[in-house]
Specification:
Elements: H1 2-15, H2 20-24, E1 29-34, E2 41-44, E3 52-55, H3 58-79, E4 99-102
Antiparallel strand pairs: 1-2, 1-4, 2-3
Protein name: HicB-like antitoxin of toxin-antitoxin system domain-containing protein
InterPro entries: HicB-like (IPR031807), TA_system_antitoxin (IPR051404), TTHA1013/TTHA0281-like (IPR035069)
Domain HicB-like antitoxin of toxin-antitoxin system: 28-90
Length: 103
């Protein structure tokens, strides 16, 4: 059902393009992995392809992933590219993830 809703929302957003502020206020799931090679953490927003970063502390990684999210959205918006809406997932199953939350 979510696929059908997403399809219609994507069609509507092409007709009525939401503001940049709208997209920047969406909350996306963040997956956090320990960085075994260099220490610290790697964070990723799977809904935004290529949106990932790293940091030494939890505070730093959350700041970095939020900046990466904003930059990803701003770049896509200015280029006229599609900006995916956050996934609706009841259960996220990633055995390598240490933390899954939102920004």
């Amino acid at each position: 059902m979510w696929d059908i809703i997403s399809f219609f929302i994507s069609k509507l957003t092409k007709l009525i393009k939401p503001s940049l502020e709208y997209y920047l206020n969406l909350q996306y799931l963040v997956t956090l992995y320990p960085d075994a090679e260099e220490g610290g953490y790697v964070a990723e927003i799977k809904d935004l392809p290529g949106c990932f970063t790293q940091g030494e502390t939890l505070e730093e990684i959350m700041k970095n992933i939020n900046e990466a999210r904003e930059l990803w959205i701003e770049t896509a918006y200015e280029a006229g590219d599609n900006i995916p809406l956050p996934s609706e997932k009841d259960i996220i199953n990633d055995p390598l993830a240490e933390f899954i939350g939102g920004v």
